[in-house]
From TrEMBL, chains A, B:
Molecular function terms from GO: DNA binding
Domain annotation HTH cro/C1-type: ranges: 13-68
Stretches that traverse the bilayer: none
Organism: Thermomonas brevis
SUPFAM superfamilies reported in the protein's UniProt record: lambda repressor-like DNA-binding domains
Identification of the protein by name: Helix-turn-helix transcriptional regulator
Length: 73, 73
């Protein structure tokens, strides 16, 4: 079963956030995003716009293109 | 004046499309997108979702992360 783009991106975002030792709530706060919305991103239930994706990447201290490459599957 | 994300992305998408020798109309057809919507993307008037961005990258025969890197400015 191939994973969808949002699921792949959600997984790499989660991995990166956990590596920073941040909870979902702390990270959502860091980037000024509602916690529930951020949780849905990690679960692959939301497809981000590019500007949101850049915001998340910045909060994860990684370039957006690198994060997208990690999630390229 | 710093360019916005959609403007940076629109510029690299246009450059890549022109390098393939395709008109906006032919390229929009290739990826099954309405021509006006695609034109707005190139003009930086639309911020794509990641799935749309992947579709455009595929049509441009380039990995999405590479296209995002080109547009990182």
């Amino acid at each position: 079963m191939t994973t969808s783009l949002p699921e792949r991106i959600g997984a790499v975002v989660r991995k990166r956030r956990e590596a920073l030792g941040l909870s979902q709530e702390a990270f959502a706060d860091r980037i000024g995003m509602h916690r529930n919305y951020y949780g849905a991103i990690e679960r692959g239930e939301k497809t981000m716009r590019l500007d949101t994706f850049e915001r998340v990447a910045m909060g994860l201290e990684i370039e957006a293109w690198r994060l997208l490459k990690d999630g390229a599957g």
